[in-house]
């Protein structure tokens, strides 16, 4: 019985792999705070690591802009609806 318990514990640890729970990032907290807002509200987009995606868009208006690693809008990058998509540089955030 003890052997079976150890095998189950070890296999569970391997099954979890990199899926350990980590604290939410500022982007994830900002996104989650907007979940119960009106559908027209701006909701930040986060990448798979929880960082702000370089390009943020406001779905209801169609406006897009580039942001820093901290989610701050980079001045002069906002594009109005119907214009060509912008190319935001991917910043390496630590």
List keywords for this structure.
alpha+beta, single chain, 2 strands, two-stranded antiparallel ribbon, 94 residues, 24% helix
Distance between the first and last residues' Cα: 46 Å
Rg (CA only): 20 Å
Class by alpha and beta content: alpha+beta
The helical percent reads: 10-25%
Biggest pleated sheet: 2 strands, antiparallel
Count of helical stretches: 2
Count of DSSP E strands? 2
Structural account:
- The protein is α+β, with helices and mostly antiparallel strands and 94 residues long.
- It is 24% helix and 9% strand.
- The chain has two helices and two strands, in the order H-H-E-E.
- A two-stranded antiparallel sheet has the order 1-2.
- Strand 1 (55-58) and strand 2 (63-66) form a beta hairpin.
Task: List the topology elements.
Layout: H1 2-16, H2 26-33, E1 55-58, E2 63-66
Antiparallel strand pairs: 1-2
Q: Brief overview, please?
A:
This protein has helices at residues 2-16, 26-33; strands at residues 55-58, 63-66. It is an alpha+beta fold and 94 residues long.
